[in-house]
Amino acid sequence: MSVEPERIRALDGATKQLLWDRMISSKQTVSTYAVMLDGGTLETMELSAAQAEGFECLTCKAQCSTGAEAFVPVGRIPSVGSVFQCVACSGGAR
Asked: Superkingdom of this entry's organism (predicted)?
């Protein structure tokens, strides 16, 4: 006797966007992080959890999943992960 698992339906675009928006809004608490920038300098920065976890640009807070902007890694937060800037901000000052 074989039992087939139930198929899980794919989420529609509106549901995916709603889940993304909820996740981002839950990561807006600002904390202080020690960021090791790619140039080798260690900077203390006030970042939202979304910025620290690489979901938003370090400078303008654009979301990386929107697809409208390209993002480049600019450093790491030890035990958290990589941090990014959008291409529009990566050439400018912080």
From this structure: Bacteria
**Gap between the Cα atoms of 38 and 30, Å rounded:** 22
Residue for token pair 């959890």: 49
C-alpha–C-alpha distance, residues 29 and 36, integer Å: 21
Q: Can you tell me the distance from the alpha carbon of 23 to that of 8, in angstroms, rounded to the nearest whole number? A: 21
Q: Which amino acid is at 78?
A: P
Least confident stretch, 3-7, 14-18, 29-33: 3-7
Question: What percent of the chain is modeled with pLDDT above 70?
Answer: 89
Pairing type for strands 30-37 and 71-77 reads antiparallel
